[in-house]
């Protein structure tokens, strides 16, 4: 049995990579495989099963090539292997997006292509709301490859690598980055006359060319170690270039805010505070890995407030988790607060046209309609409509059955609200029918 991709191209199950050696080395997956073999043998008594090597090949193909089938609200409802769709490679900057209508898989391009070339379509296998290091580790663990997509091949954004902190001026919203060398690539020495720091370089910039030439493989591709070293050097130069106003106060490194001019000393105390808060936030996120707990999210947010900037990746992830947890508990006002405050952060990391951002905007718009804040809802739903029209298409049930009716309802309620405020007829109450229950609890 084969699935046709184009008139001259089709795929069979045996065409898929079985990752035999990878599964053998993966203790958890191999243990799972052995358990499944025992289950098969106990249920299929007297049935001639394929030998263990063949069974493991089948298991490996399913593990690595299966899709999580989701409902309209992105909840997983099953798993399926789609032979034709297995052609899609991964990118952390995808140019295509997969949705489901029942068990039917639909893939739509997010950008315009002059001609359709299946080999150039890239989808995201994972949630990209993670740092480069975390994304690559996740892909290596689950799919057995080290990602070298466009986003992973270039140096990490400072927001992902270091994470911005708040400016020392409480009225300023500018991002202030602790120097990467202060966090990772430097030695700290206590000055005898003060409790501040002296910074020592670990890697000199002139090593860059040596690393680039000495660590290429036979294809000319840079090896991971060299790539990481060069990335560190790039970030050091980038930091020094972007912070020419870096100055020393005695023996303490300080950054002058480019927006308000406030001095931000990078003292050991401040760096220690950053590490403490970042570590605590990571712990809370790890505890919320399989289920969102609002109390844990709020503990992390409480510690992070006033320390981490709104664009800090940890803060963005915590607020996103708090948003989802609030929805599951029916705390609509809280959910609206977390959703609104996090939109800029999600837009920053996902990009302004990513379907995941569109889904959050749809949820937020729905909540705002539900709590009678329709004038705000219209803006978020309009932005969601532009994104989801491209990712899902105008015939997808999410677009036709949820988004369009909700947009119409929000505009109608907003007009009635305006009329009520102007002395017109009283705004009718909103029903909590199926439209709301699908996404809001």
TrEMBL record:
| Gene3D superfamilies linked to this entry | 1.25.40.970, SET domain (2.170.270.10), Tetratricopeptide repeat domain (1.25.40.10)
UniProt xrefs under InterPro entries:
H3K4_H4K5_MeTrfase, SET_dom_sf, TPR-like_helical_dom_sf
Gene Ontology cellular component list: nucleus
SUPFAM superfamilies registered for this protein in UniProt: SET domain (SSF82199)
- What name is this protein filed under? SET domain-containing protein
What is the scientific name of the source organism?
Scylla paramamosain
């Amino acid at each position: 049995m084969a699935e046709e991709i184009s008139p001259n191209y089709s795929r069979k199950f045996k065409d898929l990579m079985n990752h035999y050696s990878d599964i053998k080395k993966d203790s958890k997956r191999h243990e799972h495989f052995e358990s499944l073999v025992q289950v098969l043998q106990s249920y299929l008594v007297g049935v001639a099963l394929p030998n263990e090597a063949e069974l493991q090949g089948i298991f490996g193909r399913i593990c690595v090539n299966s899709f999580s089938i989701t409902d309209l609200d992105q909840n997983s409802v099953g798993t399926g292997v789609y032979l034709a769709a297995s052609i899609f490679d991964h990118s952390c900057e995808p140019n295509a997006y997969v949705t489901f209508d029942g068990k039917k898989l639909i893939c739509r391009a997010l950008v315009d292509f002059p001609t359709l070339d299946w080999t150039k379509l890239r989808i995201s296998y994972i949630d990209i709301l993670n740092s480069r290091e975390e994304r690559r580790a996740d892909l290596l663990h689950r799919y057995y490859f080290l990602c070298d997509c466009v986003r992973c091949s270039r140096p990490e954004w400072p927001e992902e690598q270091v994470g911005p902190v708040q400016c020392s001026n409480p009225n300023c919203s500018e991002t202030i980055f602790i120097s990467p060398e202060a966090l990772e690539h430097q030695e700290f020495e206590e000055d005898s006359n003060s409790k501040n720091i002296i910074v020592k370089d670990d890697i000199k910039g002139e090593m860059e060319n040596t690393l680039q030439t000495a660590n290429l493989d036979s294809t000319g591709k840079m090896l991971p170690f060299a790539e990481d070293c060069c990335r560190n050097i790039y970030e050091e130069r980038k930091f020094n270039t972007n912070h020419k106003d870096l100055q020393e106060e005695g023996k303490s490194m300080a950054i002058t805010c480019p927006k308000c001019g406030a001095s931000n000393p990078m003292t050991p105390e401040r760096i220690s505070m950053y590490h403490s808060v970042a570590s605590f936030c990571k712990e809370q996120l790890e505890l919320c890995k399989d289920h969102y707990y609002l109390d844990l999210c709020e503990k992390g947010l409480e510690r992070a407030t006033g320390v981490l900037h709104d664009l800090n990746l940890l803060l963005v992830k915590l607020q996103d988790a708090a948003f989802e947890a609030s929805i599951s508990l029916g705390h609509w006002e809280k959910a609206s607060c977390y959703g609104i405050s996090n939109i800029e952060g999600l837009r920053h990391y996902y990009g302004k046209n990513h379907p995941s951002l569109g889904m959050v905007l749809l949820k937020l718009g729905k909540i705002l309609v539900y709590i009678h804040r329709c004038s705000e809802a219209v803006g978020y739903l309009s932005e969601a409509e532009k994104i989801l029209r491209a990712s899902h298409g105008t015939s997808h049930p999410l677009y036709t059955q949820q988004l369009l009716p909700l947009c119409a309802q929000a505009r109608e309620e907003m007009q009635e609200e305006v009329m009520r405020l102007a002395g017109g007829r009283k705004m009718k109450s909103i029903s909590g029918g199926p439209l709301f229950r699908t996404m809001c609890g």
